[in-house]
Amino acid sequence: MEVFRDLGTAFAGVIIIIYMLIVGWFQNFKTPIVMMVAIPLSLIGIVLGHWLLGAFFTATSFIGMIALAGVMVRNSVLLIDFIEIRLKEGIPMKQAIIEAGAVRTTPILLTTGAVVIGAVIILFDLIFQGLAISLVFGAIVSTLLTLVVVPLVYYATERKKWEKKSDFDDKFFEV
After folding, report:
1. Residue 165 — very low, low, confident or very high, per pLDDT cuts 50/70/90?
2. DSSP for 12-73?
3. pLDDT at position 163 over 80
């Protein structure tokens, strides 16, 4: 129980640090929360993987979950950063989201593939099996869901902000 408590504290610390880093980069408090939606999505895969393989959730599983958090947020950052670059160029939001998916899917899948291949090697090790299950299943499920859910959440939360900027820009350039 002490190990899980300490790992839980470490996980909370990691979440806070990731959030602060993203806030610093994007100069915004709402967008980092959208990016961090990928973390609970990875939990779906982690729980599913442990259930499918009949494995217990161990301390190494928790370590894998912590490690995976950074990778999954990175995928969200890739998508949203590209979307915002395109929006600043004046591209409509729906088109920017579609382009982000088209352009950023390959690097995201390559990252996930590297994580999965690296973790599959230790999948049948008795000590590190939980770590491998968390990384493999968490990465696969979270990546697939992140490619759909994060852009949808971003669209739902940021649509009005970008529409207002677009309307302002249109009025500004009409003069």
Report:
1. low
2. HHHHHHHHHHHHHHHT-SSHHHHHTTHHHHHHHHHHHHHHHHT----HHHHHHHHHHHHHHH
3. no
Query: Does residue 23 contact residue 78 with C-beta atoms inside 8 Å?
Result: no
Spatial contact of 147 and 83, defined as CB atoms under 8 Å apart: no
* CA pair distance 112, 75, nearest whole angstrom: 9
List for the chain the helix, strand, coil content (%; round to 5): 85, 0, 15
Sign, CA dihedral 21-22-27-29, equals: negative
Largest CA distance in the chain: 70
For residue 85 the two structure tokens come to: 């670059």
Distances (CA, A) of 131 to 30, 59, 64, 137, 162: 31, 8, 4, 10, 40
CB 77 within 8 A of CB 19: no
Global pTM exceeds 0.85: no
